[in-house]
Amino acid sequence: MSLFLFLTVLQALVAAGLVGVILMQRSEGGGLGIGGSPGGLMGARGAADFLTRSTRWLAIAFVVLSITLAAVAVETTGGDEISTTLDRSVPAAPVDPLAPAVDPQAPAPASDDPLADATE
């Protein structure tokens, strides 16, 4: 169970990093485009290459973690066992738990509606 929890937290961190890296990219593919020389790491082209590589590796990590989490979840649920402890007792008539109790000996309740007693 602790492996599943660890992988879930790691998956959330990778997902947050992936969202952050994708939002930092420009739609034209220019990358961050902040300061530095044009050919340097933080230049337009260098930032675009870095963000593209980061996006690729974070996406690969996300998919691998998703598959791993699915495999761990299948192993921990123990789907091999079939439970034979089913409750097979069925009540004679369906009972509505919200319905008021009705006593057959009690007189009919008086209506609060003044028009209910009026005849045609």
User: What structural class do the secondary elements suggest?
Assistant: mainly alpha
Strand content: under 5%
- The N- and C-terminal alpha carbons lie at a distance of 73 Å
Helix content: 40-55%
Reported for the largest beta sheet, the result is: none
- Cα radius of gyration in angstroms: 33 Å
> How many helices in DSSP terms?
2
Global geometry: elongated
Polypeptide structure, described:
2% of the residues are buried. The longest helix has 34 residues, at 44-77. Helices cover 48% and strands 0% of the residues. Residues 35-40 have low confidence and may be disordered. The chain is an all-alpha fold and 120 residues long. It has a domain at 42-76. The protein has helices at 2-24, 44-77.
Topology diagram in text:
Elements: H1 2-24, H2 44-77
Helix pairs in contact: 1-2
Concise synopsis of the structure shown:
The chain has 120 residues and is an all-alpha fold. The protein has helices at residues 2-24, 44-77.
Quick tags:
mainly alpha; 120 residues; 2 helices
